[in-house]
Amino acid sequence: MADRWAPKPVQGIADGTVLYDGVCVICSAAFRFVAARDPEARFRFTAVQDPLGTRMAGLLGIDPVMPESNAVVIDGTAYMKSDAAIQVLARLPRYGWARHLRHVPKGLRDWVYDRIARNRYRLFGKTETCMIPGPELRRHVAREE
């Protein structure tokens, strides 16, 4: 059986679009972390709870009610779980070193990712609604094409 979380081609989602869980405190913190280090606004974020995010989740086989992965589209390919995190981090200024994390076996990387993802609400918290980005983050919000 093919790896459900392996990178896959995707159409209809703009390059640089990042899917995240908008009610997850650590996921929203990751959005702010990337946005603060992405001066060119190369990455645009959509919460899985938003219409674009729900559509993206459906295309990628991610449950929009209880998402088990984040995702990013780079050059027409969707990356999920630890692959997505590495793809984003490695493209930020001064974080190019992160591309070397690809050499850690994917099974191990995703095992760690899954442990954090499964316990994210208990460990970091959950909000009742998605974060509403302020003016400094709005240019990092994904829009339908």
Could you explain the architecture of this structure?
It is built from 5 helices and 5 strands. The protein has a 5-stranded mixed β-sheet, with helices on both faces. It has 145 residues and is an alpha+beta fold. The mean pLDDT is 89. The protein has helices spanning 25-36, 51-60, 81-90, 106-118, 120-124, and strands spanning 8-9, 17-20, 44-47, 71-74, 77-80. The protein starts with 7 loop residues before the first strand and ends in a 21-residue tail after the last helix.
Using brief descriptors, characterize the structure shown:
single chain; 145 residues; alpha+beta; five-stranded mixed β-sheet; 5 helices; 5 strands
Short description:
The protein is an alpha+beta fold and 145 residues long.
Sheet with the most strands: spatial strand order: 1-5-4-2-3
Proportion in β-strands: 5-15%
Series of secondary-structure elements, N-terminal to C-terminal? EEHEHEEHHH
Radius of gyration: 14 Å
Shape: globular
Poorly predicted ranges: none
How many E strands?
5
Number of helices: 5
Distance between the termini: 33 Å
Q: What is the arithmetic mean of pLDDT?
A: 89
Major sheet description:
5 strands, mixed
Q: Percent range for helical residues?
A: 25-40%
Indicate the structural class.
alpha+beta
